[in-house]
């Protein structure tokens, strides 16, 4: 019975000893086991067992983390006091060598990274003018990241990126910058307005040109139509005059002057004009016709003019006006009894 009790006690102690040595390493961790104060082995993710009391395990997080560097005042190259606030993203590289470096080469790598970031920022920004610091943030971030990554390599730490959260200039400089930004915005707005006005003016100009071209083409078309119409009128007048001239039986007619294109055109238009009446001697086209006839007779006093009209009541008035012109021979009007 004493033997059985001893076995139970030993079994319980063994189970307790075994359970005390179980260690689980998560996927986002890596571990180092030390035995009697010395490095023993590297452990990846999974189940591990150590000898209680003799072995000691240390776990290292290998995920990306952020170190928030407290704001600090930095004097730039142009002697301006800028307040700089930045953050550093880093992680411990997961292979055995780098995990060992993060444990044995540095006491607290996160604290060291923050201190190194402050020093590096003062050195890099101190060699730049404030305008470059403010306008070239991406380049400044890259420069800080490269310096920090190079310095932290001995700690087994990788600097993923550095970001400048805020760069605050002195108050008077900030006011000046605000005025400059406002002026630039107003300048851009003025340029946009000028561009829009120019575009609108070009559009109006092109529209005016198109309209003028359309009007010019319309006038050309109207002129061509008028010329064609006059040509047709002249042809019709020729036929009319020739036809009626053949009906003349007078043997005394030495010369027949068929009225020129103006007379013919006006004559035919008189025939088509509804406003014209036989007694309306003040009609504009009637007056023009008479003037043209008189001018023609002045130029050719030997001519006999045959005017084919149906103005029986008004022919005597035309005759009267024609007889008043010297050196003009008698005129015969169709539709009226022949008179010398």
UniProtKB/TrEMBL annotation:
Q: Where are the transmembrane segments?
A: 6-25
Q: Which Gene3D superfamilies match?
A: Band 7 domain, P-loop containing nucleotide triphosphate hydrolases
The Band domain extends over: 20-181
Key words, A-Z: Membrane, Transmembrane, Transmembrane helix
What InterPro entries has UniProt attached to this entry? Band7/mec-2_domain, Band_7, Band_7/SPFH_dom_sf, P-loop_NTPase, Stomatin_HflK_fam
Q: Does the keyword Membrane apply?
A: yes
Q: Which GO terms describe its cellular component?
A: plasma membrane; side of membrane
One of the Pfam families matching this protein, by short name: Band_7
What family name appears in the similarity comment? Belongs to the band 7/mec-2 family.
* The protein's name: Band 7 domain-containing protein
Whose protein is this, by species? marine sediment metagenome
